[in-house]
Amino acid sequence: MIQPWKQKNDHIAYDCGFFQVHVQQSASPVTDKEHPFYVLHTWDWVNVIALTDDGKIPMVYQYRHGSKEFSLEIPGGAVDKKDGDALEAAQRELLEETGYEAREWHSLGKLKPNPAILNNTCHIYLALGAKKVSDLDLDEAEELEVRLHELPEVKQMMRKGGIQHALVIAAFELFDLFQESNPRLFKS
Fold first, then answer.
1. What is the radius of gyration, based on Cα positions, of the chain?
2. What is the C-alpha separation between 24 and 45, in angstroms, rounded?
3. pLDDT, tens digit, 9 for 90 and up, residues 147-185
């Protein structure tokens, strides 16, 4: 039966404030041979699928430096130290990035974005009864555009490759599972 590796040591090779690169020396449970593993330690994240009463989903369109492309995504971000918990962070991110608040919140689940190299968790929320209440309140390094889409349109974009952000696609899969389990919430 497979066993966990034995961590021998861990040191921080780089710290930029938002994440730390840890080099963890771990020994194989089978051979006892040691190998270095590089793990990014960062804050937990949140992503929000918000639905207005008329079936619109506020999404954010922004340039992403990793892919050097524009990306259509759901609002989200880091769970900051000032946030009490992931739900509070989700409510804050929805408001900051879209200007929307919601009357009803549901947890859709938690995801490990890439457990091979990341230590964090992404919390996915559904915000029902979303309503525009303010202007955007973006960080100085954020530039984005809010776009409203209907669910069939979002699914079509995912099928055709117009939405490629893995966490966004996973969030909509969790949303589908939630809808199946809670049909009373989605009756017209």
1. 19
2. 23
3. 999 999 999 999 999 999 999 999 999 999 999 999 988
**Residue 182 has what pLDDT?**
94
The dihedral region occupied by 55, where left means phi > 0, alpha psi between -120 and 50, and beta the remainder, is left
Contact present, 138 and 77 (Cβ < 8 Å) = no
Give bridge partners of residue 51 from the DSSP assignment: 128
Q: Which domains does the chain have, with CATH numbers?
A: 6-42 (no CATH), 45-110+121-182 (3.90.79.10)
Between the CA of residue 75 and those of 14, 15, 45, 155, 169, what are the distances in Å? 28, 26, 11, 17, 13
**CA torsion sign, 163 to 169 to 171 to 177?**
positive
| Residue of 20, 24, 21 whose CA lies nearest to 10 | 24
The whole model's pTM is what? 0.94
Residue 106 Cα distances to 93, 126, 132, 156, 174, angstroms: 15, 5, 19, 24, 11
